[in-house]
Design brief:
The structure is a homodimer. Chain A is α/β, with parallel strands linked by helices and about 260 residues long. In chain A, about 35% of the residues lie in helices and about 25% in strands. The first copy, chain A, has a single domain, classed as Acetylglutamate kinase-like (Carbamate kinase, 3-Layer(aba) Sandwich), CATH 3.40.1160.10. In chain A, helix 2 crosses helix 3, helix 5 packs parallel to helix 7 (about 220-235) and helix 6 (about 210-215) runs antiparallel to helix 7 (about 220-235). Chain A is globular.
Amino acid sequence: MMIVKIGGGKAINLKGAVQDLAELGESFVIVHGANAIRDEIAEKMGHPTRVVTSISGYSSVFSDEATIDAIMMGYSGIQNKRLVELCQQHGINAIGLSGIDGRLIEGARNKGIRAKQGDKTIVLRDYSGKPKSVNGELLGLLLSHGYIPVICIPIIDENNVAINSENDDIVNLLQEALHAETVVQLIEAPGYMADIGDASSLVRTISKSELEAREARVEGRMKRKMLALKKLTESGAKRVIISDGRVDHPIKDALSGKGTTIQ
Amino acid sequence: MMIVKIGGGKAINLKGAVQDLAELGESFVIVHGANAIRDEIAEKMGHPTRVVTSISGYSSVFSDEATIDAIMMGYSGIQNKRLVELCQQHGINAIGLSGIDGRLIEGARNKGIRAKQGDKTIVLRDYSGKPKSVNGELLGLLLSHGYIPVICIPIIDENNVAINSENDDIVNLLQEALHAETVVQLIEAPGYMADIGDASSLVRTISKSELEAREARVEGRMKRKMLALKKLTESGAKRVIISDGRVDHPIKDALSGKGTTIQ
């Protein structure tokens, strides 16, 4: 079993990734993003994506109702269905699901983002939250009948409302349910780079202890990423590979040791 | 078993329909439209929906790639997911699927629409076609595990390409697979009206022989509708109800004999 997380950037070679997956001879699930197309849709629909920064320094998309609409259009709509179509064209019997379908991913809605507005601290409440559980029964049912789940946001909160969520957290939950040996994460970069602007600073391998050291050194979003990676290794993934999704063979390259491998 | 076809107009009371369905105590599947929201999205994305009329007089949406994108955003995206969310809020464990997911609805792509361009007859080829088969195994798997399928276009063609299709044809195929006793169709009108502009001309019941007589008298899209209805009764639906989706209790009203019943 493999979990493939595909980033939502425009430059990711979806076709190449699907071609590779079709030759894999191993079962897998896909979790995909769609932030580039969501932003494009949100802009054209007249509600551009708005990023808010909490007083603790963490930036996130402010997910009001129009943003959830844009997520449904961009993630569950065009990106999910074009990816399922690609899979079908390569003999993978994919089935696209958002986290609300069959209560696949249940979460808890955030209490609010504490942010600055001028001098005042305000609490912004939106439709976002943390995934808490995965419907392993539904995943097992589909996988055991030859269907490959292609998963995206939104997820469903404790009041049955569709909410935005982080794919890193979703991947962690899926890993707990599926016990994948390998987790591949395709991004728009060669892998994890010590210096984000310098491709030659690509880190080839990171051990679990190095992960902890790096986590202690970084801040904000990158800290969250490091924590998510640490969790993945803790929940039994033998290797986690962060690799370039823009190349001809994103999955083959990843599995052959390009990118960053965490073991 | 009941099949519920929900029209894609803005005025359909989705919440009322879902509330009614939650109290039904019977298994069902939903097939929904989203033409209003698709047109809105297509317009805002810069590719307004374009209707073409064939030389035989039949009008249809010209489904180029941008139209399929708009269908994915409008049908599989926002309309499907908001409907699934509503279902979940009313205790219905809905799972939204397009026809391409798990090859739920396979079809054959149209050879082309013969249309006039000035003096010339041209053949317009688009991404549309006729559904030919339903993945009954997948439907059965989901239904037998308590999941309610909420189905929409696109469907998948013989080359694994996502195509547009008519919901009337999809409902007919579902009926052949599911042998529903009742088929409810919610529209933005009181039911089938002899005179489309006159609500008092609502036809309360139509027998199968009347359906044939009416079919012979009408043209174009309405002829197709009549044919589809005839097929439904032939494939074992004991009653087909065309009813008002704009009321407080669309399903309850339909089942209590409001609208037009075909028996």
